[in-house]
Design a protein that fits this description.
Length: 206
């Protein structure tokens, strides 16, 4: 499932995508109007289910696979939302990296600050010992923009709470080892975020 924002009308349209013998196929599902990407994806999957789009014709002698079979996800929509969550190279990360690079700062991308700690930061400044995390407003529970999911709410609430607990634990473990952790919400303007990171880097270098 993919979402497209049409800037002129500010409308979001959902498209069902699949591969047929290596060729990508696509069907228009409809417009979605929820507050978050996760909720829009869930609405899109509900629309696709309701209109029968998820029952494509079977090729001869080949049954259609059940996409939710043996999956931990409670529904196809839940599984789709989880898969759509990119772990790196999101738009806010790319914009921040571009600004910092233009300021002459160099960094490691998607890197573990501590070899013995299985936690990956979005940007790592090894010499200054600074780890930067760009947090999505939905996935990390932004106090300003996070909106609880309306469907499968218990699952998503538990998921977000665990993310927040893991974030706090990561911050604590890195701080105890002498690292400075910077967390930036995805809604922060790239120029403001870059300036905040640059100030910390320069102060640590001094």
């Amino acid at each position: 499932m993919s979402l497209r924002l049409y800037r002129r009308t500010r409308r979001i349209r959902a498209y069902l995508r699949w591969s047929d013998q290596g060729v990508t196929q696509e069907r228009y599902v409809g417009e979605v109007t929820q507050a978050t990407r996760a909720e829009n994806l869930q609405e899109a999957w509900r629309k696709a289910h309701a209109t029968g789009m998820l029952s494509p014709p079977m090729r001869a002698n080949k049954p259609t696979a059940d996409p939710t079979r043996e999956s931990w996800a409670s529904s196809l929509a839940t599984r789709a939302v989880m898969r759509s969550n990119r772990s790196r190279d999101t738009k806010p990360e790319l914009l921040l990296r571009s600004r910092l690079h233009a300021m002459g700062l160099r960094y490691r991308v998607n890197y573990r600050p501590m070899s013995g700690l299985r936690r990956t930061a979005d940007l790592v400044f090894s010499t200054a010992r600074v780890a930067v995390f760009v947090d999505g407003c939905y996935w990390h529970g932004c106090p300003e923009h996070h909106r609880p999911a309306r469907t499968n709410s218990d699952f998503w609430r538990t998921k977000i709470d665990r993310n927040k607990q893991r974030d706090a634990e990561t911050d604590r473990l890195l701080a105890e080892s002498g690292w400075r952790v910077i967390r930036i919400w995805e809604h922060v303007a790239p120029d403001d975020a870059a300036q905040a990171v640059a100030e910390v880097i320069r102060s640590r270098q001094r």
